[in-house]
């Protein structure tokens, strides 16, 4: 609207001002139709291409992040399954479960904070009160907090395996490490989208073409269309379409932030915490009892 309304008003004014002079057709603009059609075709092609690239970047960001979250939840589920059932070790096992849950919550939070530009980047993290203060201060000053937390988790799992808190063979345990690593690879690919914007020369040239189109369309429409109201409507629709596609591409190109059309990162962190707490509940990693009732049927 900011661009379309002035464009339509300018069309009406030019139509009124030049209306008596142009007659049925302004000879000064003869042949401009083919030139202008070619220009608008190129402009439309560039805008559609820009929109497609932004759309692809948006969905790639969404897919990569949910894939990373899924990998980390799967790793946590596996670690809960691998825990020892030895009664003498249950206190240490429960401490391990709680510690991994908190560190994964912190890992997810630092991944989101590293990708988003928020005025208030505080997000819900499962209670960190039991973690060493010196370690938290070190994390605060770390140039890459996500990798630091991931390293803590990997070391914690290694120490738990060494202490006999995990009842699983090494090849199977390596699956949890692979899932943690794949989640981190997804976050790294997300940083590629965050750090490498759409090429500036392309955006700059497209902006210049749009402004030229916005300035020249009222002139041409006022001389080519007989009725001023119809000329204004055509110009309004065309200008709105081009500028809307341009701004949509700008809006969805970087989906991590706090704009209305960005992803709800705070809610995503809260949802991740809820899933961690659910998986850490004793009833979640305890196999339900089963009794055969009636005749056993094989389906």
TrEMBL record:
Q: What is the lineage of its organism?
A: Eukaryota, Sar, Alveolata, Dinophyceae, Suessiales
Q: Could you tell me what this protein is called? A: Uncharacterized protein
**Organism's domain of life?**
Eukaryota
State if Ribosomal protein is listed as a keyword: no
Residue ranges spanning the membrane: these are 31-49, 198-216, 228-249
- List, alphabetically, the Pfam families matched: Bestrophin_2
GO cellular component terms, semicolon-separated: membrane
**What organism is listed for this UniProt entry?**
Symbiodinium natans
Q: Which UniProt keywords apply?
A: Ion transport, Membrane, Transmembrane, Transmembrane helix, Transport
Q: Name one GO molecular function term.
A: chloride channel activity
Protein topology in the membrane: Multi-pass membrane protein
Q: Chief subcellular site?
A: membrane
The places in or outside the cell where this protein is found are: Membrane
